[in-house]
Design brief:
Elements lengths: L1 H13 L3 H24 L5 H20 L3 H28 L2 H26 L13
Helix pairs in contact: 2-3, 2-5, 3-4, 4-5
């Protein structure tokens, strides 16, 4: 059963559009931050799990950074790069301090970006004016 699930996930990722992959990266970073925030707010001493979740969230944000196309994305890509750098630095500080509020701030901002990407991708898929695809920053 686990093998079939892994095969499904792999196929889902391989066949996803560029915009959908970006949304998946946001979704995974949000899930990982939710895990870390939940553990910290429960006053857990499982700091290894908190650390792992934050590091995975940082990995997702790093993937978003390397997917940026500065040539096509211009100022928008540069602005996103700066935000992603801020997020990773903030998550690193939150990890050292084990500060759930700092993580919540990053999570809120990542969620806003995820919502915006979702709207852009859905507009492109539904025949919006710019139906040529999504490549502003990804």
């Amino acid at each position: 059963m686990q093998n079939r699930l892994n095969a499904y996930r792999e196929t889902h990722i391989k066949t996803a559009s560029q915009g959908k992959i970006i949304i998946m990266l946001y979704d995974e970073s949000l899930r990982q931050l939710d895990t870390a925030i939940h553990l910290l707010k429960d006053n857990t001493r499982e700091y290894d799990k908190v650390n792992s979740a934050i590091l995975r969230a940082q990995d997702m944000v790093t993937e978003l950074m390397v997917s940026l196309d500065f040539e096509k994305g211009g100022d928008i890509a540069q602005g996103l790069y700066s935000l992603y750098m801020f997020f990773n630095q903030h998550m690193m500080q939150a990890n050292m301090k084990k500060d759930a509020d700092m993580l919540s701030t990053v999570r809120s901002q990542l969620n806003e970006l995820r919502t915006a990407w979702d709207q852009v991708v859905n507009k492109a898929q539904n025949g919006g004016q710019n139906s040529g695809g999504v490549n502003v920053a990804g």
